[in-house]
Structure to design on (691 residues):
């Protein structure tokens, strides 16, 4: 179906847009591959999803072992959202991320060794150890960086789209944010600004349904985050966030609209966070906020199983080939972890580096 | 040498920089119709794409300027100090921190022009002089011009600088006339004032007054008046607070032994506080009298003129402070 609440049409095939009840309704399974996606791209998507899954599992293991400290927010369960969305982008397009953002750079083609080294606080990390888990960035492939203040990176993504608009260039930007951040004023100011200026941006809400422990149903005044698009005169799409192909297809349509100068799109990928909000919160007493039944029901719709199911059933690749991709990413994550462990911590002289482009004396 | 009004100097700087570099654009509220004057005629020359009227969404468009700067643009944002509170998250969480947080990958040549309207009955919500709060946060360059020539030259430097900059434009100076040299008269061919170079506005030997923004002009009046009494006052205009040219101040205090700092910001943790602490730490043995801070009283700005005029540093307060240093 096509949702045309306001702001024009988006061509999205029926299978990719699911009618969902509030929160966890009965999900209509996609009818297999509905679009002609290049085999290489499908397998690249699978590889990146396994890379994120295995990266995050490793992060949980080494964090529990005390190899690095600080918060880290596992993306497990949500891999299809970032990978499907980023598969629709070019290296010359831009993304911004948030706190739960190990998956975004990997999905955009970033390096797991530099990401892991950053989590370890090492000099070979993406940000020389100065950013850590919540501030990965790779400017060489359009990853403008992640914000631990939620909603705060969205106006920045609007600015990248504004540059394309002013210069008449064809790149787009895509802002990842969650259901929690969808309540931030920055998000609403950004959607209005992007719509009145018809900027080439995709607002991509990863609705994992909980802001730490608070259900979005209790904090979002409309039934779906995507319903908010109508207030800003742009299309709003509610997509099955466990289905990478659906995410790819919806984002591709939004990217085409953006590149054609028709303005922004809000996409809500409905997904689920398997793990708790953050590693390192083990000593914080946590009340019950979601049931085991709910968690189990979402785990039954695992994004990797869904993508592999489509790939195998359509004859794109065999089970063995899929398993081999998984194994290769496991190896790469192991090598990345060794790379991180062997990279030195920054020397004290690094403390004052990178403050300024045109350096000034320290006071 | 042309006599130029402060607000015209701003307009000249913007116009010349937009002509020089097509990546420069300007955005803000009501700038196409130049409600505050500084953006007059820009729309006609540069068109709608480079002269953007924004919605009332400081968090949104402050951030959009940051994002545009990250990908090669050089935005100038027009705003008022008092509206900056609404967009603080973008200024602090993003503009100030991005480059460091991302290990030097981000370059943000973005300029915020923040006008300080005070002293004219604007009351508590429209009279902020907030530069000290930004001095406390690493990552933003802070400019405080006191006359038309510096305004023009510093704004041009800000546009060309690759770091985020806030220019605090003193609204009490908008009608000020001053000499702005024609580019042809200058050896370097254009008026560009570098950051981090204080200006000795008056040379003197008895007392040093460091003035901030509009207070520089009060200090000049004080210096001229006291000269008649045989008191020789040196007046220093730091012009930028980040970076701050402490050596010029320390050298002056070494000569005079006395320091008065005139600062329109609230006195607690003001620019004056920081300058006083630098001199206390690094120039203590030069001092012959206690340092005097003449900053705004620690109250909100009252609307009524009978009370508002009591708040800010003025010629009488600065003169009294100079005399206190000489009594010691």
């Amino acid at each position: 179906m096509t949702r045309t609440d306001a702001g024009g049409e988006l061509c999205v095939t029926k299978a990719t847009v699911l009618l969902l009840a509030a929160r966890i309704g009965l999900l209509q399974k996609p009818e297999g591959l509905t679009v002609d996606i290049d085999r290489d791209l499908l397998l690249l998507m699978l590889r990146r999803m396994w890379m994120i899954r295995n990266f995050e599992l490793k992060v949980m293991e080494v964090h529990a072992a005390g190899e690095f400290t600080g918060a880290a927010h596992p993306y497990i369960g949500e891999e299809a959202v970032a990978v499907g969305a980023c598969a629709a982008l070019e290296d010359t397009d831009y993304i911004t991320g948030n706190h739960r953002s190990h998956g975004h750079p990997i999905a955009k083609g970033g390096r797991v060794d530099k990401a892991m080294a950053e989590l370890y606080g090492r000099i070979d990390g993406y940000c020389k150890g100065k950013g850590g888990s919540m501030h990965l960035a790779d400017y060489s492939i359009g990853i403008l960086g992640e914000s631990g203040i939620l909603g705060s990176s969205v106006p920045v993504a609007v600015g990248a789209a504004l540059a394309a608009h002013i210069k008449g260039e064809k790149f787009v930007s895509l802002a990842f944010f969650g259901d929690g951040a969808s309540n931030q004023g920055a998000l609403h100011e950004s959607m209005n600004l992007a719509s009145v200026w018809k900027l080439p941006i995709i607002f991509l809400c990863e609705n994992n349904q909980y802001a730490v422990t608070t259900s979005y149903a209790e904090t979002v005044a409309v039934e779906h985050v995507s319903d908010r698009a109508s207030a800003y005169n742009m299309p709003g799409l509610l997509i099955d966030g466990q289905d990478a192909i659906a995410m790819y297809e919806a984002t591709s349509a939004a990217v085409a609209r953006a590149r054609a100068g028709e303005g922004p799109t809000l996409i809500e990928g409905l997904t689920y966070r398997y793990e708790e909000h953050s590693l390192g919160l083990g000593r914080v007493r946590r009340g019950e906020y979601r049931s085991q039944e709910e968690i189990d029901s979402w785990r039954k719709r695992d994004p990797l199983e869904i993508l592999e199911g489509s790939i195998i059933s359509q004859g794109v690749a065999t089970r063995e080939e899929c398993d081999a991709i998984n194994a290769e990413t496991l190896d790469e994550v192991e090598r990345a972890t060794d790379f991180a462990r062997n990279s030195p911590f920054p020397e004290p002289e690094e403390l004052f580096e990178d403050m300024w482009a045109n350096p000034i004396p320290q006071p | 040498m042309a006599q130029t009004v402060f607000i015209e100097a701003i307009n000249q700087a913007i116009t010349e920089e937009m002509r020089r570099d097509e990546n420069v654009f300007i955005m803000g509220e009501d700038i196409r119709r130049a409600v505050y004057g500084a953006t007059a005629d820009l729309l006609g020359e540069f068109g709608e794409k480079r002269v953007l009227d924004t919605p009332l969404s400081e968090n949104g468009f402050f951030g959009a300027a940051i994002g545009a700067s990250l990908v090669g643009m050089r935005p100038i944002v027009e705003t008022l100090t008092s509206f900056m509170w609404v967009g603080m998250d973008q200024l602090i969480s993003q503009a100030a921190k991005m480059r460091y947080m991302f290990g030097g990958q981000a370059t943000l040549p973005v300029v915020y022009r923040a006008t300080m309207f005070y002293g004219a009955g604007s009351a508590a919500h429209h009279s902020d002089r907030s530069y000290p709060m930004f001095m406390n946060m690493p990552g933003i360059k802070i400019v405080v011009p006191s006359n038309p020539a510096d305004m023009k030259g510093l704004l041009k430097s800000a546009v060309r600088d690759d770091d985020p900059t806030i220019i605090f434009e003193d609204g009490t100076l908008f009608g000020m006339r001053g000499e702005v040299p024609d580019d042809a008269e200058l050896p370097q061919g254009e008026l560009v004032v570098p950051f981090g170079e204080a200006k000795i506005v008056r040379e003197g030997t008895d007392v040093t007054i460091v003035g901030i923004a509009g207070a520089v002009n009060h200090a000049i009046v004080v210096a001229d008046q006291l000269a008649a009494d045989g008191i020789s006052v040196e007046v220093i205009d730091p012009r930028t607070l980040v970076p701050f040219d402490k050596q010029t101040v320390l050298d002056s205090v070494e000569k005079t032994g006395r320091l008065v700092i005139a600062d329109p910001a609230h006195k607690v943790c003001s620019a004056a506080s920081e300058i006083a602490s630098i001199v206390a730490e690094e120039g203590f043995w030069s001092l012959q009298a206690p340092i005097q801070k003449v900053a705004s009283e620690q109250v909100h700005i009252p609307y009524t003129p009978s009370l508002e005029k009591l708040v800010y540093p003025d010629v009488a307060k600065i003169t009294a402070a100079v005399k206190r240093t000489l009594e010691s």
About this structure: The longest helix of chain A spans residues 39-64.
